[in-house]
Amino acid sequence: MADENNVSMLVSEAEIKARIESLADEICAVIDNSWLVVALLRGSFIFAADLVRAMHKHGLTPKIDFMTLSSYQDGTESSRRVEITHDLNEDVIGKNILLIDDIFDTGRTLRETSKLLQSRGANEIITAVLLEKPARREVGFRPRFAGFQIPDKFVVGYGLDYANQYRTLPFIGVLEEIK
Ligand code: 5GP
Ligand code: MG
Fold it and tell me: Which domains are present in the chain?
């Protein structure tokens, strides 16, 4: 069952809350209302909601849009592709974009999404993630803003799922065992 009993806490609700406030401070020092916020669904929906509200405390009221991606394998891990299952409504030509995801794992999702937005004519793209697994990185860049660096463990909670469950946990935890 998707309860908390098989999840061990890694980042507490209070730690997430405090870090989101400081991330918003850092982000608001570099972006303004002309930027478009793009959040990748579904994993980042809670993080994005809390982050944009923390940004609002700095007076920021940017447009927000969403994209749903699914990654699939066409043979090997290294040829993994990212497919759009729900696209943006906003036009990105000439726009500066704050691209939000839940977790930077290999980094392929943010690399492919950044490339796509660039190919559509976006101007500057900066990335913000709640979590980063440095040990797993396979791309030549790091997220510009990252809330927490975590070990190479499968985590759930605060929007992140296992089989579309556990998203409602208010903290980030390591899934120990599937019951
Ligand atoms: P990347 O393309 O950076 O390898 O993977 C990013 C995506 O993989 C995230 O948006 C997330 O959907 C998924 N992912 C990577 N690591 C985890 C994890 O530990 N837990 C969960 N729930 N999803 C993960
Ligand atoms: Mg995801």
Answer: 14-71+81-150 (3.40.50.2020)
